[in-house]
Amino acid sequence: MGVIDLGKIAVYPGTFDPVTYGHIHVIKRAARIFDKLIVAVATDNYKNNMFSSEERLELIKKTCLPDINNLEVATFSGLLVDYLRSVDCGIVVRGLRAISDFEMEMQIAAVNKKICSSIETVFLMTDPEYSCISSTIIRNVAEIGGDLSNFVPPAVSEALNKKYLEKTSRV
Ligand code: COA
Which residue of 10, 48, 126, 158 could cross-link 34, Cys pair, CB 3.0 to 4.6 Å? Predict the structure, then answer.
């Protein structure tokens, strides 16, 4: 498969259902390393997502774009490698929260490299403050009405509360 030149653009892909302070910390740090960072929201619904891809994209825009000027936010579907080709980017950024993330991340990086050998994956260690969180845990805390202020920005917290309010009013 074709070689993608390593430039100074990187893609940070994920589901971001929803984006958390943990993701945002990785986004801010990666944006300092690369000339341009594209946060790429996966639209394929293999996780039965709570937020639509447009909503997930909007929440990232709302919470990150005002502060980071070399950031782009986009959606992608299908193979990550194909998306990387379409934006002429050869670097993937991923966050590592704990040793338990390592095995899966190594597998994903290896598969991407097998598909396109010039792709490099750069791992950033998640800040210990955020290493315990995941989007699923955040959604669970929101569902039982817990305080989200340590985990997500206010816009995300409002969006979660709205979703659960809609859900309970439908029952
Ligand atoms: N802070 C907080 N939470 C974090 C985090 C951080 N720094 N990093 C990861 N997480 C959480 C996420 O919220 C997510 O939680 P959830 O499972 O409860 O939703 C979980 O960790 C896993 O997220 P992430 O590691 O970002 O993976 P993902 O499942 O969101 O996205 C894709 C994976 C989309 C990048 C990957 O599946 C992909 O590239 N798919 C395209 C198809 C493809 O190319 N396949 C071949 C290669 S596998």
Answer: 10
